[in-house]
Amino acid sequence: MKISTQKKEKIDEQILSLIYYNSPKALFTGNIAQEIARDEEFTKSLLVDLKNKGLLLEIKKSPKGLPYLKRSRWALTDTAYQSYKNINKN
Question: In the prediction, which pLDDT does 84 show?
Fold first, then answer.
């Protein structure tokens, strides 16, 4: 099944908004997928696209510095965070 570009952009907006409102806490892929009611693999592909656009950071280590073997956490880049902050002020 193919999803239109417009629908993907809407889902991207949901993801960015969710991560912004949970900032500074980074969220796991599974948590994001559950919140937006989407499949984890599909969500991961969208997260990677957003990372490639420079909007998200992929965190592959625990707060203790140990590498995650099979999962990642996601957070907004500083630039994306500031943009969302300015939007929400108005």
Answer: 80
Of the candidates 40, 39, 35, 48, which has an alpha carbon nearest to the alpha carbon of residue 74? 48
DSSP state of 67: B
Q: Which of 46, 56, 64, 63 is nearest to 83 (CA)?
A: 56
Cβ neighbours of residue 66 closer than 8 Å, sequence gap 6 or more:
none
> Residue ranges per domain, the chain?
5-89
Is there a contact between 15 and 28 (Cβ–Cβ < 8 Å)?
A: no
Class of domain 5-89: mainly alpha
Distances (CA, A) of 19 to 66, 77, 89: 22, 11, 17
Neighbours of 14 (CB within 10 A): 16
* Residue 9 · residue 16 · CB < 8 Å: no
Q: Taking the model in full, what pTM does it have?
A: 0.87
